[in-house]
């Protein structure tokens, strides 16, 4: 598409579009006729995600995020929805000598969601514009040895609820999805770190299984594209097999 042309198809921007949940979101929206722009921190990574426009951007850097949103607008002439999916695990220890891990986890998971939302919001269309933030069940519940991640994901839920009020003036909806264990690299790495098997973890889930990345993508698509979700805003929806029930 030439610069300054406007895409006939609706355009999604998803962060963390190299693998896992982000990749499933790209596939879901493309299969329904959307154009998808995505970012991750490496060119090779974002290329593997299969988006229509792969951009290198650290969501924890507001200047880079602003430039990235401008690239999306320059390329497609419109932006209809944003999914803040980029995230990192970590921040598990309270280290008396070093705050860098705390700041890294808060910056990518929470500040990144704020930076992308504030840069994208002016371009989202009134009435049909949508923002979906990927939080976690750890955005609704505390657990031991996860202070920074829990703080960041609770922050994402709080930000979602507050932004929903501001965006409602333009009838734009803002919601959060709070997944339980989802079968991705992030979950598999964490299971190894804490030395617990999938079968043991599944015992704490009433439905007795992990969530698949495609299920998160399906719910995100519902929140963005379904008429039935038009009145749904400021919500934090646990997609967790009943873990928090
Ligand atoms: N898996 C779970 O059990 C689970 C449960 C609850 C919530 N979540 C949340 O779901 C989201 C997706 O997680 P996932 O399981 O799909 O994890 P993943 O497989 O590790 O993927 C994380 C994605 O985020 C990107 N990313 C990381 N840091 C970034 C940064 N600074 N700027 C831009 N992109 C960045 C990664 O790309 P690069 O590494 O290529 O930059 C990758 O595409 C996260 O917000 C996570 O906290 C996951």
Your description of this structure?
The protein has 245 residues and is α/β, with parallel strands linked by helices. The protein has a single domain, classed as NAD(P)-binding Rossmann-like Domain (Rossmann fold, 3-Layer(aba) Sandwich). Helices cover 42% and strands 14% of the residues. Helix 1 crosses helix 8. The N and C termini lie far apart (47 Å). The structure holds NADP nicotinamide-adenine-dinucleotide phosphate. The site of NADP nicotinamide-adenine-dinucleotide phosphate (NAP) has 31 residues, from helix 1, strand 2 and helix 6.
CATH superfamily: NAD(P)-binding Rossmann-like Domain
Sheet with the most strands? 7 strands, parallel
Give the CATH class: Alpha Beta
Number of domains: 1
Helix content: 40-55%
Which architecture does the CATH hierarchy give at level 2? 3-Layer(aba) Sandwich
> What's the alpha carbon Rg, rounded to whole Å?
17 Å
Described by its quaternary structure, the protein is single chain
Distance between the termini: 47 Å
Count of separate DSSP helical elements: 8
CATH-defined topology: Rossmann fold
Give me the side-by-side strand order of the main sheet: 3-2-1-4-5-6-7
Unreliable residue runs: none
Structural class: alpha/beta
Categorize the overall geometry. globular
In short:
The protein has helices at 20-31, 43-48, 62-76, 100-120, 147-168, 185-194, 198-202, 213-225; strands at 11-15, 35-40, 53-56, 81-84, 130-134, 173-179, 236-239.
Q: Main attributes?
A:
alpha/beta; 42% helix; binds NADP nicotinamide-adenine-dinucleotide phosphate; 7-stranded parallel beta sheet; globular; Rossmann fold
């Amino acid at each position: 598409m030439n610069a300054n042309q406007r895409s006939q198809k609706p355009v999604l921007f998803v962060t963390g579009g190299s693998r896992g949940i982000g990749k499933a979101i790209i596939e879901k929206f493309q299969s329904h006729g959307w154009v998808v722009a995505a970012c991750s921190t490496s060119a090779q990574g974002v290329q593997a995600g299969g988006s229509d426009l792969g951009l290198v951007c650290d969501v924890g850097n507001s200047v880079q995020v602003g430039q990235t949103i401008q690239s999306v607008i320059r390329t497609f002439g419109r932006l209809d929805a944003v999914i803040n999916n980029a995230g990192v695990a970590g921040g598990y220890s309270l280290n008396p000598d070093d705050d860098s891990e705390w700041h890294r986890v808060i910056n990518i998971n929470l500040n990144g969601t704020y930076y992308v939302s504030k840069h994208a919001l002016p371009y989202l269309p009134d009435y049909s514009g949508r923002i979906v933030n990927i939080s976690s069940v750890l955005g609704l519940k505390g657990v031991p040895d996860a202070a920074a991640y829990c703080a960041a994901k609770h922050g994402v839920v709080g930000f979602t609820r507050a932004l929903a009020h501001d965006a409602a003036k333009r009838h734009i909806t803002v919601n959060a999805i709070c997944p339980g264990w989802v079968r991705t690299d992030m979950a598999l790495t964490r299971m190894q770190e804490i030395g617990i098997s999938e079968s043991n973890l599944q015992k704490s889930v009433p439905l007795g299984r992990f969530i698949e990345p495609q299920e998160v993508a399906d719910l995100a698509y519902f929140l963005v594209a379904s008429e039935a979700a038009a009145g749904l805003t400021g919500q934090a929806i646990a997609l967790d097999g009943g873990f928090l029930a």
